[in-house]
Amino acid sequence: MSDPTAKPARTIRLVYEPDRDGVGAFSITANERTCYYTFREILCEIGGRGFAVHRLGLGALYHVRVGRPTECTCECKGFLFRNTCRHVLGLLALIRQKKI
Fold it and tell me: Quick check: 85 and 75 in contact, CB under 8 A?
């Protein structure tokens, strides 16, 4: 029997590697629902790596910073409420896998 309080499995997939302009795309799937994002690495002068992440279809643009745990931030509501979000976790996973 499955645990109703367990978090759903979430997967991230690099859809397009960054092109010569630095723009790439990834998808995040959770609860059998997939969302697509474009991203571009941007200058981050305060530590970590900065990314502009745009969710396709909604027009939402988030500035995400990843690095050490104290360097991770995102402008999305999820991060503001929980201090973590799919954007930070997804980008960290892609970096760990050496895909970006």
Answer: no
CA 73 to CA 33: how far, in whole Å? 24
Task: Please answer whether residues 25 and 40 qualify as being in contact, where contact means their C-beta atoms are separated by less than 8 angstroms.
Answer: no
What's the N-to-C CA distance of the chain in angstroms? 38
Instruction: Kindly state the tokens that stand for 93.
Output: 């996973």
Integer Rg of the chain from CA = 14
- Residues with Cβ within 8 Å of residue 94, at least 6 apart in sequence: 12, 14, 26, 100
pLDDT digit string (tens) for the chain, length 100 residues: 556 666 668 899 999 999 999 999 999 998 889 999 999 999 998 989 999 999 998 778 999 999 988 889 999 999 999 999 999 999 999 999 999 9
Report yes or no: 65 and 86 within 8 Å, Cβ to Cβ. no
Query: How many whole angstroms separate alpha carbon 63 and alpha carbon 51?
Result: 6
